[in-house]
């Protein structure tokens, strides 16, 4: 997952080895694993990697929302078959939890905290007893005991609207691990370059973002996200998180912009034009803070593509 230079395996996830080990150990216990963190920190991607590595299958996934029902979590029924033949295992339609328990696989529950509290609490007996009761069936069929290997990886955003507080009882049934943004600018830049290369290859676009512009993009996002420059100067925090995933998206969009409209010649203006959608999506006040970053930080950097980046600040005014 973290790659192996000696074996020629590229990293799938950027993070500390100890953190990944703790996640794996958590899944080996009788508790589920809860990955928490800000939006865009690759929680879903990590849960997918863990499920695929452990179970060989990452498709048993529940997408949490205000409209998620018990049927989508545990099981439902083929009512036509149920009416004609009565309730039986044949007329039961398995949902991810049922499948995971029956096959002994990892189930992914995305955005668990977006579900109403009563829906979240359907996991209580499943996580504590590893048993799913099916009262509609008779005999031994009305209880499904989880096969060895079953567990749940859930994710939740710590900085998001529209979420519901988890009950203390449910929290006790999870080991919580916090997924933090990438701390190293060089590692983040390497990841952004790899992902942009992959996306551009998929799009059949024979162009790339120059390395100096990639460095400016990643540094800008890193500093605005952390509310301080690499030299330690404090910055006003944005409402948006400006994640690594968004940096990839902005870089990819900048190259496409240049390829289709400017003969493939990527410049800093393409980055500034396309970063507005990431930086100003939550609050218009963030635009003032981004302008302040240009005037107080970018303006005083003379190396690489920073002067060109600063000169493109006028493109911020299109949202005024």
Summarize the structure in words.
The structure is a single chain. With 320 residues, this protein is of the alpha/beta class. It has 2 domains: 17-178, P-loop containing nucleotide triphosphate hydrolases (Rossmann fold, 3-Layer(aba) Sandwich), CATH 3.40.50; 185-319. Helix content is 44%, strand content 12%. The chain has 14 helices and 9 strands. The chain has helices at 17-28, 43-55, 70-73, 79-85, 96-103, 117-120, 124-129, 168-171, 185-202, 211-226, 244-261, 268-279, 285-296, 306-311, and strands spanning 32-37, 61-63, 75-77, 92-94, 106-110, 131-133, 143-145, 151-157, 174-178. It comes from Leptospira interrogans serovar Australis str. 200703203. This is AAA+ ATPase domain-containing protein. Residues 29-184 form the AAA+ ATPase domain. One of its GO terms (molecular function) is ATP hydrolysis activity.
């Amino acid at each position: 997952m973290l790659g192996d230079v000696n074996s020629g395996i590229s990293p799938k996830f950027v993070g500390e080895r100890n953190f990944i080990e703790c996640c794996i150990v958590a899944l080996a216990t009788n508790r589920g694993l809860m990955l928490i963190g800000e939006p865009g920190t690759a929680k879903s991607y990590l849960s997918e990697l863990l499920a695929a590595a452990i179970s060989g299958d990452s498709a048993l996934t529940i997408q949490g929302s205000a409209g998620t029902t018990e049927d989508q979590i545990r099981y439902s029924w083929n009512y036509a078959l149920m009416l004609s033949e009565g309730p039986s295992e044949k007329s039961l339609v398995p949902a991810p939890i049922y499948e995971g328990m029956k096959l002994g696989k990892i189930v992914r529950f995305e955005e668990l905290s977006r579900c109403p509290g009563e829906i979240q609490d359907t996991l209580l007996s499943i996580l504590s007893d590893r048993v799913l009761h099916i009262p509609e069936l008779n005999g031994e069929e009305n209880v499904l005991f989880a096969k060895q290997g079953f567990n749940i990886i859930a994710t939740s955003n710590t900085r998001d609207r529209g979420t519901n507080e988890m009950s203390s009882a449910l929290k006790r049934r999870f080991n919580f691990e916090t997924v933090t943004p990438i701390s190293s600018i060089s590692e983040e830049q390497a990841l952004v370059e790899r992902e942009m290369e992959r996306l551009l290859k998929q799009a059949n676009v024979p162009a790339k973002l120059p390395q100096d512009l990639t460095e400016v993009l990643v540094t800008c996002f890193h500093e605005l996200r952390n509310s301080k420059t690499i030299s330690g100067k404090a910055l006003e925090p944005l409402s948006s998180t400006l994640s690594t995933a968004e940096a990839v998206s902005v870089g990819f969009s900048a190259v496409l912009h240049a390829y289709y409209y400017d003969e493939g010649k990527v410049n800093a203006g393409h980055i500034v034009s396309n970063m507005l959608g990431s930086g100003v999506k939550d609050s218009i006040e963030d635009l003032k803070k981004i302008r302040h970053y240009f005037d107080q930080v970018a303006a005083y950097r003379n190396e690489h593509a920073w002067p060109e980046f600063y000169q493109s600040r006028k493109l911020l005014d299109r949202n005024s």
